[in-house]
Amino acid sequence: PAEFSLHGNYPNPFNPVTTIRYSLSNRANVTVSVYNLMGQQIFDLVNRYHDAGFHQVTWSGKDNVGNTVPSGVYFYRVTTKDESLTGKMLLMK
Fold first, then answer.
1. Distances from the Cα of 50 to the Cαs of 7, 8, 39, 73, 84, in angstroms?
2. How far apart are CA 16 and CA 93, in angstroms?
3. What architecture is domain 5-88?
4. Is the whole model's pTM more than 0.85, yes or no?
């Protein structure tokens, strides 16, 4: 890939699982986190090095302690040392 980019999450809206897809132009340490509407980080999906290319990770609609989160809008942020991209997703039960 020529650039760091998001490919959205699928399905969206989702219940109970969605897949977050992104591409890296270079090898990088990547974090992927989920946030609620209040901006609180509720789940850490990824925190490791990835090679350049297409990547995906799934989120099961749970928080960091294993509780199922309520229906609503959530945001995911994919971050490298130099860049950060954010997407929006909708959990509907």
1. 16, 18, 26, 27, 15
2. 8
3. Sandwich (2.60)
4. yes
